[in-house]
C-alpha cells in the first residue's frame, strides 16, 4: 500500500517543507518527514502548499538519487563510506525512500489538497494559476520518477483512501498521461481568466505564465525524446524555452539549509564522500590535448568549463562561480537542454544541417556567463559539417558523417547535463538502439557488463504494497529502454 496509508489525518507536507526552507535546522533535501508532525482537519489554502511542492520537486531532481546516477554515468566518483558502495553498484531499495516520499506525500498528496481547496472555495484567477503550476510540478516530478524507476503507481493512487494498494502503471502509460497533463497546464496558462503574474509563492517565475508555457513544451519534448518519438520531440522543442532567462532553476540562498544542494552535501559533513577526480567527464573536458579522452579540438577549448565543473572542495561560500558554489543556480529544465533536444532530433528527423544549426547555438551560449560563470579560456567556434567527415571530430572510426555529428551532440548533452539525470537517461536510452552514439563511459568495476538501468522502488513501498514489482535489479532495463 502506498505511502499515503501513513496519513490518518490531512498531513500537510507542503507547509512543513516551507518551514524547513526558511529554518536553520538542516537542508530541506535531506529532511526525513515525520508524517504525524503536522496534522489538521482544516482545508489548507493552496498558496501555502504550492511552494512546498516546488521544494519537493527540487529534491527529487537534484539530490541523493541524482548524485548516484552521476556516479553511474562517469560524472562523480564515490570515494568513501556509503558513496563508495553506491559507486560500485551496491544499493538497496531503501535509497529510494526519501525521493519516493517527496513524490507521493510532498507533491501528489499536496496537489490533491490544492484541488480540494478550490473545489470548496471556487476557482479564481490566482487559483487557476496555482492549479496550472501544480500540474507542471507534478509533470516534472512524475516524469523524473518514471524515468528512473520505470513502472510506478500513478493512475490508481487515492490519497483519500489510506488502505488502498495501488497498481503500478506501465512506464509508457505514465509518459502518455504526462503529455496530457502538460497539455492541460498549457491550456490553463493560455486562458485569459488565469492570473498572468504576481504570485510570490512561485519560486521559479513569480507566476509568469509565458515562461511556464515554454517550460511545458520543453518538458513535452524531453519526454518524447526519452520515448524515442523524435519528430514529436522536435516539434514541441520549437515551442520550448527560447531564452536563458526562461529556464526553470533552483536559485539557492545563503540561508543555512537553503544553499546549492551540492554545496550543502559537502559542507554538511559529507566532505570527501564524492569527487570528480579522474572521472570520465573530467577527462572528457581535460585541458591537455594529449589526454586520450579529451574532447578538445581546434574549435573547442574548455578550461573555463573544467574550472566550473569541480566539486572536490566544500569551499564556495557565497560563491556562484563553480557548480557547487553556495549560491550557484541548479538546473531543472533549461534553455540549453531545449537547444540540444532540437539539435539531436533535428539531425535525426530533418537534416544534419538543421541539427548543426542548433548545436552551434549551444556553443554560442557557452561563450556567455549565463552558461557557466567561471574564469578561464573558453573557445566554442562554430562547427561545419565537414568537421565530422571520416577521420574528423568524433569520427576516428570512420562512421558516416551524420552519425559523427550525432555523437558530438550526445557528448554535448553529456557534459551540459552535468548535475542532472540527463547523462544517465541518455546512456540508457541509446544502449539498445544507438550504441555507436553512446558516450563510452567505463564501468566502475569489472564485475558487470551493463550499466545500471533503473533504481528500485522504495523499500517503504515494498513493505506495504503487495502490488510492488518483485525481483527487480538495477540492471533490468525499464520498458522504454528494452
Automatic annotation (TrEMBL):
Q: Which domain of life does the protein's organism represent?
A: Bacteria
Q: Which Pfam families match?
A: SusD-like_2
The name this protein goes by in its record: SusD/RagB family nutrient-binding outer membrane lipoprotein
Q: Which organism is it from?
A: Polaribacter porphyrae
Amino acid at each position: 500500500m502506498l505511502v499515503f496509508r501513513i496519513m490518518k489525518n490531512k498531513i500537510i507536507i507542503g507547509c512543513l517543507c516551507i518551514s524547513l526552507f526558511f529554518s536553520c535546522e538542516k537542508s530541506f533535501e535531506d529532511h526525513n518527514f515525520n508524517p504525524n508532525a503536522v496534522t489538521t482537519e482544516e482545508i489548507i489554502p493552496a498558496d501555502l502548499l504550492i511552494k512546498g511542492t516546488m521544494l519537493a520537486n527540487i529534491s527529487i531532481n537534484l539530490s541523493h538519487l541524482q548524485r548516484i546516477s552521476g556516479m553511474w554515468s562517469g560524472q562523480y566518483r564515490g570515494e568513501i563510506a556509503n558513496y563508495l558502495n553506491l559507486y560500485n553498484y551496491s544499493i538497496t531499495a531503501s535509497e529510494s525512500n526519501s525521493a519516493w516520499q517527496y513524490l507521493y506525500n510532498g507533491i501528489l498528496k499536496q496537489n490533491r489538497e490544492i484541488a480540494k481547496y478550490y473545489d470548496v472555495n471556487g476557482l479564481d484567477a490566482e487559483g487557476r494559476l496555482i492549479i496550472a503550476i501544480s500540474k507542471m510540478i507534478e509533470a516534472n516530478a512524475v516524469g523524473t520518477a518514471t524515468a528512473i524507476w520505470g513502472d510506478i503507481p500513478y493512475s490508481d493512487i487515492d490519497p483519500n483512501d489510506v488502505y488502498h494498494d495501488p497498481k503500478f502503471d506501465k512506464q509508457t502509460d505514465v509518459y502518455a498521461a504526462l503529455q496530457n497533463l502538460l497539455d492541460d497546464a498549457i491550456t490553463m496558462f493560455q486562458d485569459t481568466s488565469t492570473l498572468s503574474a504576481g504570485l510570490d509563492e512561485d519560486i521559479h517565475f513569480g507566476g509568469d505564465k509565458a515562461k511556464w508555457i515554454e517550460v511545458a513544451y520543453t518538458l513535452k519534448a524531453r519526454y518524447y525524446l526519452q520515448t524515442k518519438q523524435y519528430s514529436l520531440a522536435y516539434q514541441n522543442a520549437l515551442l520550448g524555452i527560447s531564452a536563458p532567462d526562461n529556464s526553470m532553476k533552483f536559485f539557492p540562498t545563503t540561508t543555512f539549509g537553503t544553499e546549492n544542494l551540492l554545496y550543502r552535501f559537502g559542507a554538511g559533513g559529507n566532505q570527501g564522500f564524492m569527487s570528480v577526480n579522474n572521472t570520465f567527464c573530467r577527462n572528457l573536458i581535460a585541458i591537455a590535448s594529449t589526454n586520450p579522452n579529451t574532447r578538445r579540438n581546434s574549435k573547442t577549448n574548455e578550461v573555463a568549463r573544467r574550472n566550473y565543473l569541480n566539486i572536490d572542495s566544500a569551499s564556495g561560500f557565497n560563491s556562484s562561480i563553480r557548480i557547487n558554489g553556495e549560491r550557484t543556480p541548479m538546473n531543472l529544465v533549461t534553455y540549453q537542454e531545449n537547444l540540444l533536444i532540437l539539435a539531436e532530433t533535428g539531425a535525426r528527423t530533418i537534416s544534419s544541417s538543421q541539427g548543426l544549426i542548433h548545436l552551434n547555438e549551444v556553443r554560442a551560449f557557452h561563450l556567455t556567463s549565463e552558461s557557466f560563470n567561471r574564469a578561464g579560456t573558453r573557445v566554442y567556434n562554430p562547427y561545419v559539417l565537414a568537421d565530422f567527415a571520416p577521420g574528423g571530430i568524433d569520427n576516428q572510426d570512420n562512421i558516416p558523417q551524420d552519425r559523427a555529428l550525432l555523437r558530438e551532440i550526445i557528448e554535448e548533452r553529456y557534459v551540459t547535463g552535468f548535475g542532472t539525470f540527463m547523462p544517465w537517461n541518455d546512456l540508457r536510452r541509446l544502449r539498445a538502439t544507438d550504441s555507436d552514439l553512446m558516450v563510452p563511459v567505463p564501468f566502475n568495476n569489472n564485475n558487470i557488463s551493463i550499466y545500471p538501468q533503473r533504481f528500485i522502488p522504495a523499500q517503504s513501498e515494498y513493505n506495504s504494497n503487495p502490488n510492488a514489482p518483485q525481483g527487480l535489479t538495477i540492471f533490468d532495463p525499464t520498458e522504454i529502454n528494452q
